[in-house]
Write a structure and sequence with these properties.
Enoyl-CoA delta isomerase 1, mitochondrial, binds ligand L4XM7KOE, about 50% helix, alpha/beta, Enoyl-CoA_hydra/iso, single chain, seven-stranded mixed sheet
Length: about 300
């Protein structure tokens, strides 16, 4: 409810896809300049910026929340607002999600939202995580993840909700659902999303061992669809997008729905219980202790 209220308030306050350039009001301007301005629009919030090209119907969402694009409540709220606005804009048919930060796509859920927080805060946070997943996994747009850095846990989940994943081929980057390494457990809908992509057995091993894969390994198991050099990432994403957009929209959307609806329905039917499970699990002393140890390890590794 809090997320929905925040969404309503923020939507009302902020103009999203900004209006076409007002340059034509200032005397004579080149027609192509006006056209370009009308065809592109930009929206920026503190953690997300969106470039929308009306001539292609494709928006690029840049995650820009230093240091690691962790998925905090604020980040998720902004993310969902941006997504909802794009979804409502009938001229937007495709979305590419990428990171503006070097080396990191997204570090996954913000651990500080789960550590030392009240049950109420944990519950609100979890609802926002659910909302992000639901919106992305059932989006009518073609969604492409352009993964230009590490993408553990919630970052991997975000990528998995997209229709197509392209990752930069840098062995320093990794991707996977590594929750067990933090002493926590990926919920059933994280598991379902991964199993729908790479199959049951690979998911079983990957989750149990908290596996993080290099781009080449991720390609091998089908966790990502393509790996490319950094400089080719966006052009490859645009090419993939064009291929998906060439399919008649209703046929593509119905197919997506047919493939994903059972997973979405399972989650939505258990949504409340899932929040309760999360809150009671994450606030346990033993789990809080595991998160503390993991946070300390992250800090030590840095030192
Ligand atoms: C019975 C069943 C019931 C089930 C109920 C549900 C159970 C709970 C389910 C919860 C699911 C959780 C999903 C998640 O996504 S958990 C998050 C997992 N993420 C990680 O493990 C990633 C950790 N981070 C890293 O590995 C690296 O930071 C990274 C490779 C991403 C980048 O490395 P880099 O060297 O560039 O950056 P630093 O490590 O130095 O990090 C910079 C600072 O950022 C802080 N940081 C990093 N990641 C996070 C994060 N996820 N949340 C919060 N903060 C993070 C890091 O500590 C550094 O901070 P300081 O600058 O203050 O030191």
């Amino acid at each position: 409810m809090a997320l929905r209220a925040a969404l309503r308030t923020k939507c009302a306050l902020s103009g999203f896809l900004s209006q076409p350039s007002s340059s034509s009001r200032h005397g004579r301007v080149c027609a192509s300049t006006v056209l370009a301005a009308q065809q592109r629009s930009n929206s920026t919030s503190s953690k997300i910026s969106v470039d929308f090209d009306q001539s292609t119907g494709v928006a690029v969402m840049h995650m820009k929340s230093p240091p690691v694009n962790s998925l905090s409540l604020d980040f998720l709220t902004e993310f969902c607002i941006s997504l909802e606005k794009l979804e409502m804009d009938k001229s937007c048919r495709g979305l590419i999600i990428t990171s503006s930060l070097p080396k990191v796509f997204s570090a996954g859920l913000d651990i500080l939202e789960m550590y030392g927080k009240s049950p109420e805060s944990c519950g609100e946070f979890w609802k926002a995580v659910q909302e992000m997943w639901l919106k992305l996994y059932s989006s009518n747009m073609v969604t492409v993840a352009a993964i230009n850095g590490s993408s553990p846990a919630g970052g991997c989940l975000m990528s998995l909700t997209c229709d197509y994943r392209i990752m930069v081929d840098n062995p320093r980057y990794s991707i996977g659902l590594n929750e067990t390494q933090l002493g926590i457990v990926a919920p059933f809908w994280f598991k379902d999303t991964m199993a729908n992509t790479v199959g049951h057995r690979i998911t079983e091993m990957a989750l149990a061992l908290g596996m993080l894969y290099s781009p080449a390994e991720a390609l091998k198991i089908g966790l990502v669809d393509q790996i490319v050099p950094e400089e080719k990432l966006m052009s490859t994403a645009e090419q993939a997008m064009a291929k998906w957009l060439a399919i008649p929209a209703h046929a593509r959307q119905l197919t997506k729905s047919m493939m994903r609806k059972p997973t979405v329905d399972r989650m939505t039917s258990k949504r409340e219980a899932d929040v309760q499970n999360f809150v009671s699990f994450i606030t346990k002393d033993a789990i809080q202790n595991s998160l503390r140890v993991y946070l300390e390890m992250l800090k030590k590794r840095k030192a």
